[in-house]
Every structure is written in structure tokens, then in C-alpha cells.
Design goal:
The complex is a heterodimer of chains A (450) and B (220).
Chain A lengths: L2 H6 L5 E2 L6 E2 L19 H49 L3 H5 L3 H24 L4 H22 L6 H29 L20 H42 L4 H13 L3 H6 L8 H13 L11 E6 L2 E8 L2 E10 L2 E8 L9 H12 L4 H4 L7 H14 L12 E3 L6 E8 L2 E10 L2 E8 L4
Antiparallel strand pairs in A: 1-2, 3-4, 4-5, 5-6, 7-8, 8-9, 9-10
Helix pairs in contact in A: 2-4, 2-6, 5-6
Chain B lengths: L8 H31 L9 H18 L12 H24 L15 H34 L2 H15 L10 H18 L3 H20 L1
Helix pairs in contact in B: 1-2, 1-4, 2-4, 3-6, 3-7, 4-5, 4-7, 5-6, 6-7
Classes of the chains: A alpha+beta (450), B mainly alpha (220).
């Protein structure tokens, strides 16, 4: 059979083998008796059909795999945004820190941030034209980034690094898809991710291309509206969620703790106030507070407060009360989700004249034995200080009787403490007094060396 | 029209293996370099060969994954390509030096103890000038080249392996700083591989490039 007849089927008139009558050219059966004719099927038609199916399949696969490349471009675009943020930070927030670096290091940092921007921008622009190469670039980039972060972070796995590792794996999968896209594009030049522009001289107004463009625009508009609607809903939901999270996790305001402190003060609850200190009632500040209260004789009742003022700034708050003999200031700080009392400044301790206590000491010194002296020590510290005092006196052989004291010089009274020097022969002794409501107590005694 | 979508099972398998080989080449290399840098005690002794050993293991694994050992080591080539290795190495070196100078010049070097002993010098030359070019070229222009060529075509292999080569040098601590001149180097060595269809000219150019670098560092 000729080349033409192979491609297009029989062109010459043939006859029916059953009835012998002439059959129409290309007919599959006899129009007279209905007997099937042995006509070779046209090869081109079969091949063309096969090609069409193959082309359709490849187009279908192309439509599937090209979305991977578009996703890779989206990741590059996100990288561009991140790189822009880094560049902006390098020029604003980090500018001062960078200024402290040497010229070489500063250049390196700027090359890094701008290189990052350049690389991700080039990836976003060119990945549609050369998918494989730019997907390999992305895969290598994220692999290197993840590996370096892993290395520098002592192989810890914070969430950010997990995201980078996920991106690394995803990019390596995308490399395979990008290679497939390139092969499909190479095999069928009509398959392109980037839509090619029609040259002006080839353009037909209102033609197929214009109609397609119109349909595309309408589709895009619809898609854009849909995305805007979805985006709006998502934004609203996120804003609502943000407010809810903020409301639920917002740190307590200072007002509550200031009110609680005021309430404890008015109820004269000294221990409750001690428990408000950072570190609890066992903290040093709480013990100091309890001592200050005891020395002032406020255990039985805290003094009445005058007008209160407070000042709250960020995570610090100060509450001030006017008391009868001065002002009281309570400083609070927010530590995590709670406000804690940091310091409590009371008005200066006002003590009565120390001279009667000095006279009492002189009498006790002149008395026989050391009982009268020990009786001047506070009962709480008598055991500890008493034995030390007795040992001290016995070392000087003054346990039973002591030499007479001469004149005394009293130092200034500060915070209910006074130091008095008394002449003893050619030397002098030093006596410390401490006021604990309602009286002065002996707090320390320093004798001459010998 | 070529059969596109109805790929045979063997072709799919081949593509998957090529992709796995490519990923192992990159990820495995970073792992090998991390491990190597942890064990290497600096440019002073034979531990300098440890990263190269790690890279060789990675290359061997990737080649085994690709399933075509022989195809990853095309060695036959004409002499004229070997002769072309010298100008290519010089060009690559010029680009590298120019780029480094642009960034603010080379460091004066740590100098070490001031008097490098013969064993250290020998270790440096053997590792940097002989072993490293062999291993890196096999890894990039052998294993990775074969993988990308299987996945796409030779042009893509040329570009992608140059990218891979550039990023593999980012583990030195420079991250993207190493990228530009290493990429150009990768393009040049890859061009030799592409045109000559052999690894040897690229290895020769790479070795010459490294020799010049070591000589320059020694001169400093």
C-alpha cells in the first residue's frame, strides 16, 4: 500500500467480497448487503488520537506538578519579605551594634543581609523560568541554614529550627517535581509556567487571546474577591483570638495588689503584709519589716494612714501613705504574672531620750555581779549576748566588781540606735543601745583591750 | 511526541534514586563537614583529611544510591581539555581573590606557631591540593551531576551542581559570603566537565586553584 493510503486509508473504490458490488471509498461495511469490509484503519487517525491523549495526560500532569513550582516561588517571596525585614533591622535597630564592629565584619554583615535579599528575590523572579536550578538553590540554602543553626545552637531543636528543617525536606521533594516540570516543558514547548506575551503585530482585537484574557481576568477577580473575603474572615478571627488571648493572659494590674496591701494595713495584719514580699514571709525584706514593726511597737496595731497616692509605671508601682510621723512608701514590681512587694520604707523611728538608759547602765555597771547588766539585754538575745558579755567581763576580772565610770559622750541617735562612750580610768568603754518599743536595751559592749 | 506521562516504572525508579542521591549529596556533606570540623584540630596535621574522608563516604553512598557507580566517574578525556584546566583555574582564582579583596582583603592569617613543620605543610598540600579536589569533583561533578542530568538535562546539571558546590563551601562559617566566588568556580569547573565529558579536567583545574590558594596563604 502506498504512503498516502497508509496514512489516510483506502482512496480507491473496492468491492464487497459477499455481494461483489462497489463499496464507497473509506466505508467500513457494504452499503448494499451490510457485510463488514476489510478496510485498514487509517494510521494517522489512530496515532493522532494517541498523541492527543498523551498530550492531555501530560498537560494534566503538568498542571499538577507546576503548582509545586508556584509554591516554591511563594516560599521565595516569603523569604524576600523576611530578607527585607533583616535589611531594615540592620539599618535601624542593629545599626548601633553594627557600628561597634570592625569595617570588615560590618561589610560582611551587610553582604550577608543584602546577599540574602538578592538571592531570595532572584529565586522569586526566576524560579518559574528555571525551576530545577532555583529549587536546588532553595534546597541548598535551607539545608545550609538549618545545618549551621543546628551546629551553632549545640544541636538543640527550637521551633524555628524545626520549621527550617521542614523547609529543607520540602525543598528536596520539590527538586524532584521541578525536574519533572522541566522535562515536560522540554518535551512539549507549548507547556509553559510563564505565560508568553503576544507580540503587538500578532495581536487580534477581540480575538481568542483577548477572550481568554478576559476570562482570566474575571476568574482572577472572582478569586481575589474570594481570597479577600476569606482573608477578612481570617483576620477578624485572628484579631478576636488575639484579644481573647490577651484578655486571658494579661498580667494583673497593680490596682488589685495596692488595694490588697491597703486592706492588710487597715486590718493591722502585719504577717499578711510580710507574706506579700518577694520571697514570702521568710525573705530578708519580710524579716526586716517585722523587726521594724516590732521596734516601733506596731505589733499591736499599725498606725492609721492618711491620704494614699500611687504611681504605676510599666511593671513598677509605688504606694505612698501619710502617717503621723512621716510617709510610708511601698514599692511593688511585677514578676511574671504577679505583683510582689519589693521594699517598704517606713518613717524614721522616733525614740525617747537615751539618757535614762545610760543612767540605768551606769547603775548596773556599779552593782556587784553581772545580773543587772544582763537584765538590760533584750530577752530574745539575752542567751546569746549574755554569755559573751559575761566572758568579756571575766577576762578583765570585772565579773564581780568593776572600776567606776567617768563622764560619758553620747553619739547621735539614728534609726533608734545610739552609741555612748564612757571614761574608764585612762581609757574608755563603748556601749551600744537599741530602742525596741517601749524602752532602750543594751545592744553591745566594747571594753578597753586591757 | 515523546511518551511523557506514561513513564515506565524503571524511569520513575531512576528519577527517585537520582533525587535521593542529590539530597544525600547535599545533606550528607553538611553532616560530614560538621563531624569533620569537630574532629579536625586545624590546618596542622593529618586530621585535615577527616572532612575529605567524610565527603568521600557521602559520595560513595550517593553513588550507590544513584545505582550507577561507573557513570559517576567519567575519566576518559582528551589532552587538550587537561591543558585548558590551567587557564580555567587561573580565572577562578582571579575571581576568588577579587571577591575577597572586595570584602576587605584577606586576613593576615593566624600564623600558627610561626614555623610550620614539614609534616604540616605536607598534610596541607596532600589534603587541600590532592584529596579535596578529587573528592569534591566526584561529589559535585560526578555524583550530583549524574543525578541532575538524570532528573533534567546537562545544562541544568551544570547550573545546579555549581549551586551545590557553592553552598557546600558555606559550612566554613561564611554562610552566603562564600557563595559568589565559589559559584563562579563551580560554573568554570562544571563547564570543563560538560564540554570534556570527563571529571579529570575539572579535578586538575580545582587542584591548581587550591594549590594557588595554599601558595598565596603561605606567602602571607
Amino acid at each position: 500500500m502506498s504512503e498516502r493510503s497508509e496514512e489516510e486509508g483506502p482512496s480507491a473504490t473496492s468491492s464487497c467480497p459477499a455481494c461483489g458490488k462497489a463499496a464507497a471509498p473509506g466505508a467500513g461495511f457494504c452499503t448494499h448487503c451490510g457485510e463488514p469490509l476489510d478496510v485498514p484503519r487509517p494510521r494517522r487517525a489512530r496515532r493522532t488520537g494517541g498523541d492527543a491523549a498523551e498530550r492531555a495526560r501530560s498537560r494534566h500532569e503538568f498542571g499538577r506538578v507546576k503548582s509545586v513550582v508556584l509554591t516554591v516561588r511563594s516560599v521565595f517571596l516569603a523569604g524576600v519579605v523576611y530578607a527585607i525585614v533583616l535589611v531594615a533591622l540592620a539599618h535601624t535597630v542593629d545599626a548601633k551594634a553594627l557600628g561597634g564592629l570592625g569595617a570588615g565584619a560590618r561589610t560582611a554583615v551587610f553582604v550577608l543581609v543584602y546577599g540574602n535579599l538578592l538571592l531570595t528575590s532572584a529565586g522569586a523572579l526566576l524560579v518559574l523560568r528555571a525551576p530545577l536550578v532555583w529549587t536546588v538553590v532553595g534546597a541548598c540554602y535551607w539545608t545550609l541554614d538549618a545545618a549551621l543553626n543546628l551546629w551553632l545552637g549545640d544541636f538543640a531543636l527550637p521551633p524555628g529550627l524545626l520549621v527550617k528543617m521542614f523547609l529543607t525536606v520540602a525543598f528536596w521533594f520539590a527538586v524532584g517535581q521541578a525536574a519533572r516540570v522541566e522535562r515536560l516543558m522540554a518535551a512539549d514547548p507549548t507547556l509553559q509556567i510563564v505565560r508568553k506575551r503576544i507580540r503587538p503585530e500578532q495581536r487580534v482585537a477581540g480575538g481568542v487571546a483577548d477572550q481568554a484574557r478576559g476570562r482570566l481576568r474575571a476568574d482572577r477577580r472572582r478569586a481575589l474577591l474570594g481570597r479577600l473575603r476569606l482573608g477578612g474572615i481570617v483576620v477578624l478571627a485572628l484579631v478576636g483570638l488575639g484579644f481573647a488571648v490577651r484578655a486571658l493572659t494579661a498580667p494583673p494590674t497593680a490596682d488589685a495588689v495596692l488595694a490588697r496591701f491597703t486592706e492588710h494595713w487597715q486590718q493591722r495584719d502585719v504577717d499578711a503584709i510580710a507574706a506579700m514580699f518577694d520571697g514570702g514571709a521568710e525573705s530578708v525584706a519580710a524579716r526586716d519589716w517585722l523587726e521594724a514593726v516590732a521596734r516601733r511597737g506596731w505589733r499591736a496595731g499599725l498606725p492609721a494612714t492618711g491620704e494614699a497616692t500611687n504611681e504605676v509605671r510599666d511593671d513598677r508601682a509605688v504606694l505612698q501613705f501619710a502617717l503621723a510621723d512621716g510617709a510610708m512608701r511601698a514599692g511593688f514590681a511585677r514578676l511574671g504574672q504577679s505583683w510582689r512587694l519589693q521594699r517598704l520604707e517606713l518613717p524614721p523611728l522616733v525614740a525617747p531620750d537615751v539618757v535614762p538608759a545610760i543612767e540605768q547602765f551606769r547603775q548596773a555597771w556599779a552593782a556587784r555581779g553581772s545580773d543587772a547588766l544582763l537584765a538590760m539585754l533584750r530577752p530574745e538575745s539575752r542567751d546569746r549576748l549574755g554569755s559573751a558579755t559575761v566572758r568579756l567581763l571575766e577576762r578583765h576580772q570585772w565579773g564581780e566588781q568593776r572600776p567606776a565610770l567617768g563622764d560619758f559622750t553620747a553619739g547621735p541617735v539614728r534609726q533608734g540606735r545610739a552609741k555612748v562612750f564612757m571614761v574608764l580610768g585612762d581609757d574608755e568603754i563603748s556601749v551600744g543601745f537599741e530602742y525596741w518599743h517601749p524602752r532602750w536595751w543594751l545592744a553591745s559592749l566594747t571594753l578597753p583591750r586591757q | 511526541m515523546r511518551q511523557l506521562s506514561s513513564r515506565s516504572a524503571s524511569e520513575r525508579r531512576q528519577s527517585r534514586r537520582a533525587l535521593a542521591a542529590l539530597a544525600v549529596t547535599c545533606i550528607g556533606t553538611y553532616g560530614a563537614l560538621l563531624a569533620g570540623s569537630a574532629w579536625t584540630s586545624g590546618l596542622q596535621d593529618w586530621t585535615l583529611l577527616l572532612p575529605d574522608l567524610g565527603l568521600a563516604i557521602v559520595a560513595a553512598m550517593a553513588a550507590a544510591l544513584a545505582g550507577a557507580w561507573r557513570a559517576t566517574l567519567p575519566l576518559a578525556c582528551r589532552v587538550r581539555w587537561l591543558m585548558l584546566a590551567a587557564p580555567v583555574a587561573l580565572l577562578s582564582m582571579l575571581v576568588a581573590v577579587g571577591y575577597v579583596e572586595l570584602l576587605g582583603g584577606r586576613d593576615a592569617g593566624d600564623g600558627g606557631d610561626g614555623e610550620a613543620n614539614a609534616a604540616a605543610v605536607l598534610a596541607t598540600w596532600v589534603a587541600v591540593v590532592v584529596i579535596t579536589p578529587l573528592v569534591e569533583e566526584w561529589l559535585c561533578r560526578g555524583v550530583a551531576w549524574r543525578a541532575v542530568a538524570t532528573l533534567a538535562n546537562e545544562r541544568s546539571a551544570w547550573l545546579a551542581t555549581a549551586v551545590l558546590f557553592a553552598f557546600l563551601h558555606g559550612m566554613g562559617g561564611g554562610f552566603l559570603l562564600e557563595l559568589p566566588h565559589r559559584f563562579v568556580g563551580g560554573l568554570l569547573f562544571g563547564w570543563l566537565r560538560w564540554r570534556s565529558r570527563s571529571l579529570l579536567p575539572g579535578v586538575a583545574a580545582h587542584a591548581l586553584h587550591n594549590a594557588l590558594a595554599v601558595a598565596l596563604a603561605g606567602a602571607d
